[in-house]
């Protein structure tokens, strides 16, 4: 729920919000591309470290618990830029916390995605599990799409009555237009902030609950698998994996290009 909701709200609402506040679109685009580049290098490293971890809590849960706190904090900070920042300052604020969010997301969600297939060898139980996963992904998308709109109506208490005292009709119309634009921007920012607080809190609590309830199965580490490059090269022996690898790369490339545009 929290994963898909945060992705949607960042992909759609963050850029629109920062543009309305005067941030530089070219700089914003650069930082979005930078986050994708960091993910490319970070994901296999996090996956490898998680696979070969030997914590008392398990291989996956320490990464998930550590990252969930920063996931929530950075998500909220992306949508709470200070009012006094300049155009460049706004762009840098976005770039810093947007990239930190995706680093935290990678550290937490790569082990999270790996833990589900390890819960059972039964295909029937896995299908039942993923039915719940996809249901809550869909609910997360609905939340990110609908809740900010509903909250915006609550926070939009616009009072432009002071414009009625201006001398000319043109001045009054300009005043009302500026006032309404300002009110819309402020109510939109408030609605997105409170939505992100809810999403971040939900994500944090759900990861904590999962870690408390779930017992990871013990995994024996093969000394031959203890280095990153040999582990990556050994994937060539996995024929089913190679068959789905390139379609998966193509699919995700198209989705990310469209989302970034």
Care to describe what's here?
By secondary structure, the protein is mainly α. It is 76% helix and 0% strand. It is built from 8 helices and no strands. It has helices spanning 2-20, 25-51, 61-78, 87-115, 123-155, 169-213, 228-233, 239-260. Helix 1 (2-20) runs parallel beside helix 5 (123-155), helix 2 packs parallel to helix 4 (87-115) and helix 5 (123-155) packs antiparallel against helix 6. The two termini are 24 Å apart.
Give the structure's gist in a few sentences.
This protein is an all-alpha fold and 261 residues long. The chain contains 8 helices and no strands.
Contiguous runs where pLDDT drops below 50 for at least 5 residues: none
Percent strand equals: under 5%
The average pLDDT is 85
Gyration radius (Cα, Å) is 22 Å
Structural class by SSE content: mainly alpha
What is the makeup of the main sheet? none
- Cα shape: elongated
The arrangement of helices and strands along the chain is HHHHHHHH
User: Helical content, roughly?
Assistant: over 70%
Tell me which oligomeric state these chains represent: single chain
- The tally of helices reads 8
Q: Report the end-to-end length measured between terminal Cα atoms.
A: 24 Å
Total number of β-strand segments? 0
